[in-house]
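no rush on this but wanted to send it before i forget. theres a chain ive been looking at and ive put its sequence and its fold in token form underneath. please have a look and point out which stretches look like helix strand or loop to you. thanks a lot i owe you, the record is right below:
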Amino acid sequence: MKIKELAFLFEDKKSLYITLILSVIYVIPLIIADYDYLDDYGRNLFGYGWQHDGRFIATLLSKVWSLNADTFSIFPFSTILSALILGSTGHMLTYLFNIEKDKTIKWSSLLIVTMPTFLGNLVFKFDCLPMSLSLLVVVLPYLFYNSWFKFFITSVVGIFLSLGLYQSGATCYFIVGSLFLIQTLLAHNWRDFFIKTFIYIASFISAFLGYLAVVKIGKLPVSNRTETIFGKDHFFDLLTANNVIFMQRINVLLKSGSYTYVILFFIVLSFIGVLYYAYNNRRNFKKLIVLIPVFLILVVNLWLVSSVNIILKESYWDLRTFCGLGFLLINILFFQGYLKGKIVYLSRFATFLVVAFSFVLMAQFGRILTNQNQFQHSVVNDLKIHFKDPSIKKVGFIGTLQTASRNDFAYSKFRIFKELLGSPIGQYSAWTKDALNIHGMLLNVEVVPSDDFVCKGELIETTQYYHVRKINHETLIIDFNKNVCN
């Protein structure tokens, strides 16, 4: 059975193939690095899913592609498939909004897969695939946009799937839809604007209620960061505080390398496109006044870049939750479509620079992951000797493993690397425990709390990165803080 709404994917095969090939090339540094992040260690050891975070669809699908009752890694195929999914998503958006029409190489189609904030998602060998799918499923409904019934049904299904795959991706539905609303406003079709806005809201509420019903019926735990600031005392103070943190995260991104100048150049050209629109409609007040709500929509979209963190009481501010960045860039890029003459070539160059920067960023990310991998393996190998003694039955960890010193320069130039993930690359004692487990060193050893063991016992080894203390004949303490004791 053919779906006519998907036929466009194969109308310009050359453009699609170029997008997909470049998307796969983009993730090559991650594949080469072969880095296991904290959650990857745990899932490699125990095969657990994501139902404890309310991501029950991610768990279900992981069992499908694992062809098993448990979750297994299919890396590097998970990373490659994620790149293909995100590349296809970007290609769909260029079609939906007639961006770079008739161009063989559509740089705009790469804005989703190469958004810098999604590096923190692609690095997960297990998570990257459901996270990428969560973005695709909220774009697919817009292929049926001209049929309100099909659009409503597919929107409910798509949003429901996105919530069950990775909740942060669900709000991208509104960022994509807002560009349709902007087009409606520029066409001065207020009736269609309000109808479609109502469908957006009704679709999201329906999907969200369905999601909550499944979570409740299945008695699934969800994140404790779901309480909003609505109805709270000092609402505006809380909103202001959240906005401050949000802008701090955006600033971290902008201060990474030369991203500020790249994005500024990109935005300026889009603003010139707005000026072209205003000049061509200078005698039509109705078409000029709609620029005010258009601007307000873009401001809301900026906040939606980080999902709904802006309205949560306890927000999750890791940059990897900023799934809407690429969609916002496409919103901004849309206005470059009003440019005329040779400046159009300049606008394509601006988009190319945004994509090129992301390729450079990915290259650096792959390098620091490789460095960290080598460093962590070295530490694990050095610790092996202490677990050859069969009498060691307990181990405690104090502090965290530092990041590889070879990465210091990259961290200083690209601040984003310190904010991408909830726990910094290479750190936290849970990593140490699982890393040692992977090497079979803690199979018969209990990990115990270590707060009461600071400076206790006999110091048996000191290195640049940790101290090892023997508390008694069966207990070791590995102190990454290297506490100085009398």
